[in-house]
Amino acid sequence: MKAMFPSKKAIQKVIVAEMENFLTVDELSERLKVSKVWLYKLVREKRIPFYHIEKCIRFSPSDIQNWLEERRNKEWRRDK
Fold first, then answer.
1. Which of 32, 37, 70, 76 has the fewest CB atoms within 10 Å around its CB?
2. What residue numbers bound the domain in which 43 lies?
């Protein structure tokens, strides 16, 4: 029986579709109702999943959803 793997073209379509859904810092701060400064701090400290594309910072909605779910019942410490 031949194994069924997605074609290279199908994989590229998925990647492009995911890229089109990436969020900017502005969009994510609006959705989460937090400041952009706080998001930049999380990025700088590598405490939030992000992609650095050239000079742009982008967030995958699925990565952010997973990140939020991991923190659902955890106590947040206050940043100083």
1. 76
2. 21-70
C-alpha to C-alpha distance for 27 and 42, rounded to whole angstroms:
15
Burial zone of 70 (CB within 10 Å; 0-12 exposed, 13-18 middle, 19+ buried): exposed
Q: How far is CA 44 from the centre of its chain?
A: 14
Report the domain count for the chain: 1
Q: Are 58 and 23 in contact (CB under 8 A)?
A: yes
Record the pTM.
0.69
Cβ 64 vs Cβ 49: under 8 Å: yes
Please, what's the largest Cα pairwise distance for the chain?
A: 59
Residue 12, token pair as written in the block: 């590229």
Identify whether 5 is part of a domain: no
